[in-house]
């Protein structure tokens, strides 16, 4: 077990060294190709906290004590850390200016955009003569030198500040007031128009955003709540971006689970129409894992997703959206075992791995000052607004991160394993395997005589005895136990095992191909 882990880590370091050697000259975007091959390992970061310097360790950035919040420049030293963990893509939460009126939190929500053609001044360092645009460009250039692609988040709505400046951009209700979508009280719904009549003012706003992020070297865009704009709106915008960079990735925040608009006044475009419009991928519904009690529920979701993706002439893919910034920390749901399971599912399924800053070390995103009155604010909200158990996007706060060394080592190992079996994931077939225990799941990926078998227990409280049916399997097959906590018994056509609560077992067989 220790030898295997060392080999994977050594292989990962070699890959990084070679990758960095080639990326130091001229960066060539390959993100669409990588994403289509399920090879992106994506790490979502909030730049406002990613490089934050909380010297007194109270969890909040106090500028009057010379502490520094995250910026484009102080994020750069941490890029090497991400590369060493196996990250090859970062999803950067919005870098646009944030609203200060009717705001949430003392810094304002990252998703409350007050402009779409300029940079958030909160992300600029004062310790340089570089313009904020050049600071952003330097951050992305340094990411590329580390072999890390960069996806920039495109906010779905506008702030109240923007509404006050340009009311013609927004949807109005029957009384003529701007519409509050869902319960997002700090933003107002942009009027993107309809399939038959796109609102050119909003379209041009987004077009300027595309120009801005491509000009600083970004490799793709993640479209926040992509469902609330018409498919044609996105089709035109995506085609425009591809005229500048054919490999420019578009990721839609959309899911099969979502079937209602965010407001009675909003349009709703389902995920399949977004894919038809040119998006390279979407979130899928893997965040429902936390609700599954039956292993078959997970298997059915994987089958459904694979079937949905197979319908398109151009390759489409999903992210392993088991946990996102909209989800409560796995540590608060089922602890370390749940986080570990998410890592192994990302590593062994035909998905692009996806993680939130702090996940890899077990952050529970509990802030002791949360929702208390603040002594200082930079918006009209004088409370530290925070969503419990979720990464803070509303205040100048600490870097995300926990102290779980076991999770960190598992994170590095699973990312390395994903690269090792990339040829099986990309070219092989996903094969559901029958299990005898309802809470257990099992599947295989097989290609040219090699098979990866994954067995898991969705019961996080008790042990489960299960029998997994594996056609053609025999005791003579040589199985490499990549990850086990209890010893499985290999019999003819079966694997018998006792799974501990939340346990995942991973076996690699070099002499077995399943159909």
List keywords for this structure.
eight-stranded parallel sheet; five-stranded antiparallel sheet; 18 strands; 14 helices; globular; 515 residues; alpha/beta
Let me know the largest β-sheet. 8 strands, parallel
Could you tell me how far the N terminus lies from the C terminus, measured between alpha carbons in angstroms? 28 Å
Strand order of the largest sheet: 9-8-7-6-3-2-1-10
Q: What is the typical, i.e. mean, pLDDT?
A: 94
Unreliable residue runs: 20-24
Question: Percent range for helical residues?
Answer: 25-40%
Would you give an account of this structure?
This protein is 29% helix and 16% strand. The protein has 515 residues and is an alpha/beta fold. The protein has an eight-stranded parallel beta sheet with strand order 9-8-7-6-3-2-1-10. The chain has a five-stranded antiparallel beta sheet with strand order 11-12-13-18-15. The protein has a three-stranded antiparallel beta sheet with strand order 14-17-16, with no helix packed on it. It is built from 14 helices and 18 strands. Helix 10 links the parallel strand 8 (281-282) and strand 9 (317-318). The radius of gyration is 23 Å and the shape is globular.
Task: Tell me briefly what this model is.
With 515 residues, the protein is α/β, with parallel strands linked by helices. Helix content is 29%, strand content 16%. The strands form four sheets. It has an eight-stranded parallel sheet with strand order 9-8-7-6-3-2-1-10.
Topology:
Elements: H1 2-23, H2 31-36, E1 41-45, H3 47-50, H4 79-84, E2 89-92, H5 132-145, E3 149-154, E4 158-159, H6 160-165, E5 187-188, H7 200-215, E6 220-223, H8 231-244, E7 249-252, H9 271-276, E8 281-282, H10 295-309, E9 317-318, H11 330-333, H12 335-348, E10 353-356, H13 405-420, H14 422-427, E11 429-432, E12 440-447, E13 450-457, E14 464-469, E15 479-483, E16 489-491, E17 494-499, E18 504-509
Parallel strand pairs: 1-2, 1-10, 2-3, 3-6, 6-7, 7-8, 8-9
Antiparallel strand pairs: 4-5, 11-12, 12-13, 13-18, 14-17, 15-18, 16-17
Helix pairs in contact: 1-13, 7-8, 12-13
